[in-house]
Every structure is written in C-alpha cells, then in structure tokens.
Design a protein that fits this description.
Helix content: 55-70%
Largest sheet: 2 strands, antiparallel
Radius of gyration: 22 Å
Shape: elongated
Order of helices and strands: HHHEEHH
Distance between the termini: 36 Å
Structural class: mainly alpha
C-alpha cells in the first residue's frame, strides 16, 4: 500500500487565468456601471432642465480616478447649485435638480442586471 500520493492541479483556477478574468470582470463592470450612471444623469438633466445650455452637459464625464470610476461635472462652479448639493443652495424657490443623486439611485436598481449582462464573457475566460 503506497504511503504517499501526487495531486496534480491544472486548469484556469490554478494557472491564475480565472483570477485574472475575475479581476478584469470587476474592472469592466465598474466601467459599465459608471457609463450607465452617466447616461442616467444626462437623461435626467435632459428631462429636468428648464433652460438647458449645452456647456454644462458636455462637461459631464465618467473618468478613472485612482482605482475608481467617477462621474462628475469637471468642477463647474455652478454644478453644486444645480444639484443643490449644499443646504445653502436650497434657499428660495429653486431646490435643485438632484441629477447625480437620482442617477445614483437609478443605477443602484440596475446594477444586478448590468452585472449579469457583462458576466458571460468573463465566465468563458474562467474556463
């Protein structure tokens, strides 16, 4: 009776291929979610702005910042006023559009569907 045996590990899980595919999936999903948030914010602005000017809307972008993707308005000076991000901007009749806040909520509701849509490509890579 043998006193030892050999275990051979093969396949994408052991070669690192699956881990790389999982990492790439997370990166791709982050981009997809950011661009969906951008699209949702733009749709909200298009539907809400009373007197739209193209200048503000063309400043809205999704860009990598460090390890994250960030949707922002390139720090346009009147952006916080449009969003009513600070309590001091909520005085008077104008209460802000809350476009980014509403887009964030919208994309939270879509994230599982987006994740399921992106996943098959990366599952094939995982073996």
């Amino acid at each position: 009776m043998p006193s030892s045996f050999v275990v051979t590990t093969t396949g994408p899980l052991f070669t690192g291929q699956a881990a790389a595919a999982a990492r790439d999936y997370c990166n791709e999903l982050e981009k997809v979610v950011a661009y969906q948030a951008l699209a949702d914010a733009m749709g909200i602005m298009d539907a809400s702005f009373r007197n739209p000017t193209p200048y503000y809307e063309v400043q809205i972008t999704a860009q990598p910042r460090g390890e994250d993707m960030v949707v922002h308005d390139r720090k346009i000076i009147y952006g916080p006023w449009l969003e009513a991000a600070l309590r001091t901007y909520r005085r008077g009749n104008f209460q802000g559009y809350h476009s980014f806040q509403r887009a964030a909520e919208s994309v939270r509701q879509k994230v599982m569907r987006l994740a399921q849509h992106v996943l098959p490509t990366f599952l094939r890579r995982m073996g």
